[in-house]
Amino acid sequence: MATADRWTHLYKVLSKSGPFSDPDWVPGDETIKSLEESKILVIGAGGLGCEILKNLALSGFKDIHVIDMDTIDISNLNRQFLFRQSDIGKPKAEVAAAFVEKRVKGVKITPYVGKIQDKDEGYYMQFKIVVCGLDSIEARRWINSTLVGMVDMDNPESLKPLIDGGTEGFKGQARVILPSLTSCIECQLDMHAPRPAVPLCTIATIPRQPQHCIEWAHQIAWQDKRKDDAFDSDDMEHIGWVYNAALERSKEFNIPGVTFQMAQGVVKNIIPAIASTNAVIAAATTSEALKIATSCNPFLENYMMYAGEEGVYTYTFEAEKKSDCPVCGNLARKLTVNGDFTLEEFIEMLGERPEAQLKKPSLRTEEKTLYQRFPPQLEEQTRANLKLKLRDLLTSGQEVAVSDPAYTIDFRFQLVFA
Amino acid sequence: MLKIWSMKQQQQQAENAEGAAGKKKKKVTAAQLRVQRDLQELTLGNTMKMAFPDKDDILNFTLTIEPDEGMYKGGSFVFTFAVNQNFPHDPPKVKCTQKIYHPNIDLEGNVCLNILREDWKPVLNLNAVIVGMQFLFLEPNASDPLNKEAAEDLRQNRDMFKRNIRASMGGGSVRGVQFDKVLR
Amino acid sequence: MASDFPQTQVGPSSKERKYDRQLRLWAASGQQALEESRVLLVNSDGPWGDKSTGVSGVVGVETLKNLVLPGIGGFTIVDPAVVTEPDLGVNFFLEDESLGKSRAEETCRLLKELNPDVEGSFYSKTIAEILKEEPDFVSQYRLVLLSGPIKHSSLQSLCSAAKTPGVPVLYTRSVGFYSAFSLQLPAVFPIVETHPDPESTQDLRLLNPWPELAEAEASISNLDSLDDHHHGHVPYVLLLLHYLETWKKTHNGNLPLNYKEKTEFRDLVRSSARTNNPQGGEENYDEAVAAVLKSLNPFSLRSSTREIFELDECKNLTASSPEFWVIASAVSEFYEQHKVLPLPGSLPDMKAQSADYVSLQNIYKTKARKDIADVTKIIRRTESQLGRSVEIPEKDIEVFCKNASHIQVIRGRDIPQVDGDAQTQKRIRTELNNDESLIPIFIAFQVLDIVVTGIQEGKYPEGSLDDEAVWSSELDRILGALASDNSPPIDDDARDRILEAARELRRTEGGEIHNISSLTGGLVAQESLKVITRQYVPLDNTCIFNGIRSSSAMYNL
């Protein structure tokens, strides 16, 4: 009774349909039960992650996992509200999980301190939904291609909705990706502006801005003077050294404006971050998670941009799936072959397949270059593989990626030995 | 989606148990795939050679440029290419392994080429980079130098600059700086 | 200049380290304003009938979280409610041990844990009781947050208590997948640091260079005879000035002003670049070509700035006029004299040798300082004419001059009501003709306010929160009021859209969903920060969020 009472408000939207919920949806106990059984993964326990964990726990999810490799830093405390001064230096995932578990009774949060790349498909397969609160494009691309790669057309359960959030100052975005069905992170890569860079020669010879002096100290002076120390942007002594070197250079060129804060910002590529923007974007992602997990209302299709400098501005649109996307444009096809075929025979077979007559393919697995037609040095190094049997080159079920100059898109095959 | 899930649930649990026991199977990464394609589309000519210390790692290799014309004719210049997993969002990192006398390459081997930094775009490919590198040896650019002294020489006295190149390529010193021998 | 180059390494203090990521947005001045402010949260106003404790107040608490973390000076929570089981399912700043205790006290305690720099206090009673004992209670706060729905009389009395001392009010409601909030600002709310896009603030004065800038242009009259290196490093600002002189010689002394002339001028610049080099062109010329259409525009005053100069507050200064108006009036006078605003003085980065760039930059900075000095002179004269005893600090004059082109003044309005003034009604009627508008959600919230008022005043039973007949009749009453005054009646489609929105609100019987309240708390905190720091541009005046479609809209009601 106490439980039902506690979730009074949430259970109302799960037990009663609204004007916009799917007419076929059956609200009630089954919906609630399925929500509680939905295992959900949160990637990142930082500014977005702390909010996401709180929101999911208060949205009725009972089995939450969280991955983060970072430890808590003093500069996190202005927004990562699950952490205190005394937590500095501890792993974010563990502290965040313990806090939310203690505050919201009945929720289980399993932390993993480490990289997302440590885990394999078997691990990601256990979740129904993945929610990302990351600051790295590389990590986003990795989880995206992993989830796209997991899609098995014969098994709808292998499709894991990916909900991604990101912020920068007063701006942010939230997006819903249904791997292989809708536009993916790789399709949308050009929406991430590349980090603006200054020509190296400007830094080396004609600095004009305080930032140029800092880049010089960081990239050229450090290499010159402290080659043997690995530069660590979290080491205050290192930042201090760069700051002083930059200051000296700025005096030499009469360029005002070098400050310690700026030095730190340039060297660490610091993005401004505040609690309120994180709250908005995190809640946008978890609201979608609740809608996807329960069907209580339609979910976002598929991108929301947000900007808060001038009033409150949002723009919702459907990002397009790219047919030539290197990740979701061509999903891996299962191909049953004789493991005793040589690579050469296999290549011949590819040339005869009706869907893509690959005449001049280069092929590889994640760990091996099977055959690379160009440049000549690599062709020579991989030529011997042509005579080897497939089963000596790879294991059954492994993925082979094929590029052919006749096609602008690459192919992936999952080779299963007959 | 909920409907699909509830239908497939039990079947899936069985498959999961099976899958978890299986070996970790890694996908070819987007960066690897792109490099595989880029390599295949290179046009190297006879002044350039590539080498792969580990043939299975196509993200790390060296490029040797041996100009057959221009002021650097007769030299053999070796560059390392390091492509990270965020390629092609990030440009490849290129460094000269030898200490050479060149206005756009400093003594640490850093290379000043716009498309390696400020003008990099994901639509550019490795061939564009290699063409740019080759160009640096045909037409060293004095106007935006990394090695200020070399640039100064090129601007002030082209003949002396040429002499300095010869001396440096032979392993001699220029203005008190000893260079690596890079003659073929 | 000495202060431009600190002599010793000054590492950040631990406070600067803690707040580093936000100081990069609103700087030390914004942080100081934040730390000097106290915020009042009125988080509920008594139960709705016997079973419901009324508003859960999640938006209010989540908003405070987002203000406590960045280091607001202090907060006070007014909330007569006692913590119940449903509170624990929706409010993160309560725990099992809080059951049966004062919700004001418990939320205050758990929010204070977030930041030891912040003071927190609470009152476990209604705001009406407090106002009865202490009528000017609200004046000690910089901002009031009010969690609705709340009965009409309480809303009215709190809003008017805040209006007299000019304290802004944010009135929020979050129910099911919808939320809405409105901001009541003082009648005149000026902002100097609006943080516009840096591109839009670029002001190079190329068409009317002041003498020192023209002199710099003269220094490259030998442009054609420069060696390639120097030719390729002339800053593009000087290149444009140079070719403008060339242009004038062949165009009767006229500047290229229309689009056709500008493209011809651009061709002139482009064709003057040297191409007999390895790169086949020159970067500084590329930059000059790219800047022609953007930078060769006569100075024009933005209409919003012109309107500010026309306001009574600007034209009729008194001894007690706020600082903003004294400076605005002086800048307006400066504009009358020079037909331009004070120069902001910043110069974008461009291809150039270090020393050439720095000296060009100094020409811009020196001019900016001179303009500030001129404005300051006007201000000092005004101050003595008006008999003002305290001088406006130079720092404030400088900040104003740098931002002069994008200053804004918001005309504050009351928290909008459907049965309120004619302007609100007119805007709502217009919006109802647009079938994409979120205004139906706003009206549905208005009906909810009325139903809650009815319950609290004993007119309606508690069950009315999900009683279709009650909602429908209250809606018709509102629509009737909207349609009066010779305007056409509201059409059925619009009525249906409002009823749909109302159905979504009725679905949770006034209850909050944590995600939507947390998101709304983020938006409300952001507006609070803008109001308190007087930086960036706050909402004017109503925002509606639709969590079903993940969309929002702003309306000036």
TrEMBL record, chain A:
To which pathway does this protein belong? Protein modification; protein neddylation
Keywords on this record?
Answer: ATP-binding, Ligase, Nucleotide-binding, Ubl conjugation pathway
The E2 binding domain is annotated at: 335-418
What catalytic activity is recorded? ATP + [NEDD8 protein] + [E1 NEDD8-activating enzyme]-L-cysteine = AMP + diphosphate + [E1 NEDD8-activating enzyme]-S-[NEDD8 protein]-yl-L-cysteine
Q: Which InterPro entries match?
A: E2-binding, ThiF/MoeB/HesA, ThiF_NAD_FAD-bd, Ub_act_enz_dom_a_sf, Uba3_N, Ubiquitin-activating_enz
Which Pfam families does this one have? E2_bind (PF08825), ThiF (PF00899)
Record-linked Gene3D superfamilies: NAD(P)-binding Rossmann-like Domain, Ubiquitin activating enzymes (Uba3). Chain: B, domain 2, Ubiquitin-like 2 activating enzyme e1b. Chain: B, domain 3
Q: Which family does it belong to?
A: Belongs to the ubiquitin-activating E1 family. UBA3 subfamily.
Functional note: Catalytic subunit of the dimeric E1 enzyme, which activates NEDD8.
Which protein are we looking at?
A: NEDD8-activating enzyme E1 catalytic subunit
From TrEMBL, chain B:
Superkingdom classification of source: Eukaryota
Q: Where is the active site?
A: C112
Pfam families from the xrefs?
Answer: UQ_con
List UniProt keywords, sorted A-Z: ATP-binding, Nucleotide-binding, Transferase, Ubl conjugation pathway
Q: Is ATP-binding one of the keywords UniProt gives this record? A: yes
Q: Which residues form the UBC core domain?
A: 30-174
Tell me yes or no: is Protease among this UniProt entry's keywords.
no
Task: Give the UniProt family note.
Answer: Belongs to the ubiquitin-conjugating enzyme family.
Q: What is this protein called?
A: Ubiquitin-conjugating enzyme E2 2
From TrEMBL, chain C:
> What family is this protein classified in?
Belongs to the ubiquitin-activating E1 family. ULA1 subfamily.
Record flagged with keyword Transit peptide = no
Protein name listed in UniProt: NEDD8-activating enzyme E1 regulatory subunit
Pathway annotation: Protein modification; protein neddylation
Q: What function is annotated for this protein?
A: Regulatory subunit of the dimeric UBA3-ULA1 E1 enzyme.
PANTHER family attached to this UniProt entry = NEDD8-ACTIVATING ENZYME E1 REGULATORY SUBUNIT (PTHR10953:SF29), UBIQUITIN-ACTIVATING ENZYME E1 (PTHR10953)
Domain named THIF-type NAD/FAD binding fold: which ranges?
A: 19-535
Q: Keywords on this record?
A: Ubl conjugation pathway
One short Pfam family name for this protein? ThiF
